[in-house]
Amino acid sequence: MATKKKDKNVRVEYNNIKEVSSVVSLRDVFLVSSHWESFLSLHSTGFESNNKFFNFKLLDATWNFDVSSKTLDIQLTYQLIAEEKSEIKRQKSNVRLFEMQFGWLVVFSVPETFKPTKPKVMADFTVVNGQLNAFPYVRQFVHEMTTRAGWPPLVLPTFLLPAHREAHLGSRRKATRRSK
Fold this sequence. Notes:
Layout: E1 9-11, H1 14-21, E2 25-38, H2 42-45, E3 52-66, E4 71-88, E5 91-109, H3 119-148, E6 164-166, E7 171-172
Parallel strand pairs: 3-7
Antiparallel strand pairs: 1-6, 2-5, 3-4, 4-5
Helix pairs in contact: 1-3
């Protein structure tokens, strides 16, 4: 008997997110980590935008509720990989140009009565509202970092609310990393 392959994406239930979004308020957004690695310089590749492509991905999204400070913290980790399509001796390949990985902390204030009891609702809220609030900062950060690294400025497209999320995203985190 064949086993059914488990789907790694789950549908975001927007009606349920209101349980959280209607009671929280955004307190702050922090950049908590960043890493940049260049594999080739712009000058060695000869920048032709039609040969370049970018893979931008949310790697991780976690949340933590701190009862004492009445805050809901969402940690988001992103990755951006830039590659160039090349053809050497009729063999097509992708050459990695640079990679960046960075983390953001989105902090919400919550009322005294707030209790995160439904894991799926919290996971959906984490992935959707965490990104929605962090994305203007993420977009500006990517633009500035690519420029400062000597590449033409990369402007990420506008954030679109996802219909699905990867099943592993949106889990509860045990400890909170936060600047005071």
